[in-house]
Amino acid sequence: MFLKSTLLALAFCAFASTAQADSIHTITGDTTGAAIFTRPVEDLSGLSAIGKDVSFNQFRFTVSAAGEYSFLTTAAFDSLVFLYSPSFNPNSSLTNALIGNDDLLGTTTSGFVTNLAANTPYVLVITGFEGFEYGKYSTTIGGPGAVTISAVPEPETYAMMAFGLGVVGLARRRATSLKTA
Question: Residue 123: pLDDT above 90?
């Protein structure tokens, strides 16, 4: 089933864009055990009443050329995708939302075609329909320019970085106080 969905994704990306795709980029992942949020409804008119505490992954990216890009996610669960620019905040999931989709080719596929600007930050969010919808997925992005993915640190990474900076600051403070003593 997952292989069939992946093949559908490639077919969608090949034919969705009117311009010849110079770049096709595929992202794979797994939302099992990922951070949770309350997702928007597909048309971005509000927050979902049943999409509370759903797992999500996010990917920050830019494209090298302006134009029409196609997005297709195939998953082992009922997936939704949302595009944000310039940033995404899971505590305010309607802010900066540009487009969303559910059930493009069936319940395990979601995607859209939209115009993107070159060198503009975007965030793609992959999530489930309900809280028990999570698992492996593959997202294919195709369009006229190269897609550059940049890492989005997990909250634990920020905590570890803050702890490390605190330790360095404490060590410097202690070294300074030893010099003056």
Answer: yes
Residue with token string 């600051």: 169
Q: Which of these, 37, 145, 22, 21, lies nearest to 82 by C-alpha position?
A: 37
Name the strands in the sheet holding 109-116, side by side, starting at the edge strand that comes first in the sequence. 23-30, 136-143, 67-75, 109-116
Q: Which residues does residue 145 pair with via DSSP β-bridges, in sequence order?
A: none
Contacts of 117 (CB under 8 A, 6+ apart): 63, 66
At which residue do the structure tokens 């509000």 appear? 46
Q: Is residue 125 within 8 Å of residue 40, measured between CB atoms?
A: no
Look up residue 165 and give its amino acid.
L
Query: Which residue from 132, 139, 104, 106 is spatially nearest to 29, judged by alpha carbons?
Result: 139
Give the residue from 95, 101, 89, 85 showing the smallest Cα distance to 12: 101
Tens-place pLDDT, residues 92-113: 999 999 999 999 999 999 999 9
Average per-residue pLDDT in the chain?
Answer: 84
Beta bridge partners of 102: 80
Letter for the amino acid at 39? R
**CB-based burial label for 51 (10 Å; 0-12, 13-18, 19+):** buried
